[in-house]
Amino acid sequence: MASAQIRFRILGCADIVRKLARAISLAPNATITALGSRSLEKAKKFAADNNFPAETKVYGSYDAVLDDAGVDAVYIPLPTSLHLKWAIAAAEKKKHVLLEKPVALNVSEFYRIEEACESAGVQLMDGTMWMHHPRTAKMREFLSDSERFGQLKSVHIIFTFAFDPDFLAKNIRSKPDLDALGALGDVGWYCVRAILFAADYELPKIVTALRDPVFNEAGVILSCGASLRWEDGKVATFQCSFLSHLTMDITAIGTKGTLHVRDFVIPFQEHVAPFSVSSNAGFNDLVTGWVPSPIEHTVTTNLPQESLMVKEFSSLVAGIQCGSKPDKKWPTLSRKTQLILDAVKASIEKGFEPVEVLP
C-alpha cells in the first residue's frame, strides 16, 4: 500500500501551496496531478512560477478539479470561510480531504465537514504539520513515562510572530470575511493542539480567555491568550500573536520531569529537531547547580515534517482504496482543537467569563 501513488489536486494558489507542493513531490507515495484556481491565468502563472511538473493539469475553477475522475485527494488551503463549502463538495465527489487549519470557523461547521467525509468514506486530516515529525513521537515517549515525567501538572505554550503593517492590512488572516478567527485560528490553533498533545488529548473542563486581546479595526483578533483547567487540577495557558517576535515554545511540567521545546511548529533546521528534558532534578550540595542536569535530545529526519504528513495521509488513503476504513484519529483531533478555539472566542465575547467545554 505504501508504494501506491496517491494523486493530489490542489484548490487555490495560497502561498502555503508552494510548501505543500514541495512536500508532495518529496513524499514517496504521492504526486501532484492538477492545480485549480478561480482564475485560469492565475493558476497557470502559479504553476509556472513554482516549477510544477509540465504534465500538471491546470483548471480555472474548483469544481473542475473535483469533477476530474483522475483525483484521489484534494488539498484545500482556501480561506477558512470557504472550507465548509469546498470540503463538503470534495467529500461528495469521493475525494479524500487534506484541509488547512483552522478547519472551520466554528465546531458546528466542522461537524458538517466531518459528517460529509464519514458518509462518503473518505479520509479527513488537517494540516498541522509538526504532529508528523518524529520528534513528536519521541516527546510523547517522555510525557508517557511515569518514572521520568510523572503526572502532567501544567502546560504553557507560546506561538507568536510579528507581521509587518502591509500584512496586517491586506492578508486574508486579517479579513473578517475570509479568516475571521485571525491569530486565534492561525497561531492559536497550534498552541491549542500542543496543549492537547501534552494532555494526551483530554479536553479541559473550563476555558477562560485572558484579558486585553488586541483586535484590528475590522474586529479580527491579532493577539490573545487563554487559560485552561481540567477536573483533576492540571492547568494550561497559551499566548498567540501576530504582533510579537517569532517564538514557538512548549513547556510541559510533570510531577517528576519537565519538557522544553523552542521550535515546536517549525524546527530551527528542516532535518534536525531538538528538545530538552529534565527528570527528578534537584540542587547540588551548595545549591549552585542542578543535579542531574537537563538533557538535550536531537531527532533527525530525512523527509521534512510536511512531507511526512503527506506520506501518512497518502498511506491512509491507499489503505481505504484497499478496503480499510478511514482513520478517525485525525478528525477527532481537529474537532477537539476547534472546540477549544470556540470556547476561547466565546469567553472573549462574554467578557472573559469561564466557558465550559462540551464535547
TrEMBL record:
GO terms for molecular function: nucleotide binding. Residues 6-125 form the Gfo/Idh/MocA-like oxidoreductase N-terminal domain. Residues 144-259 form the GFO/IDH/MocA-like oxidoreductase domain. Pfam families: GFO_IDH_MocA, GFO_IDH_MocA_C3. InterPro entries: Gfo/Idh/MocA-like_OxRdtase_N, GFO_IDH_MocA-like_dom, NAD(P)-bd_dom_sf. It comes from the Eukaryota. Belongs to the Gfo/Idh/MocA family. This is Gfo/Idh/MocA-like oxidoreductase, N-terminal. It comes from Dillenia turbinata. The lineage of its organism: Eukaryota, Viridiplantae, Streptophyta, Embryophyta, Tracheophyta.
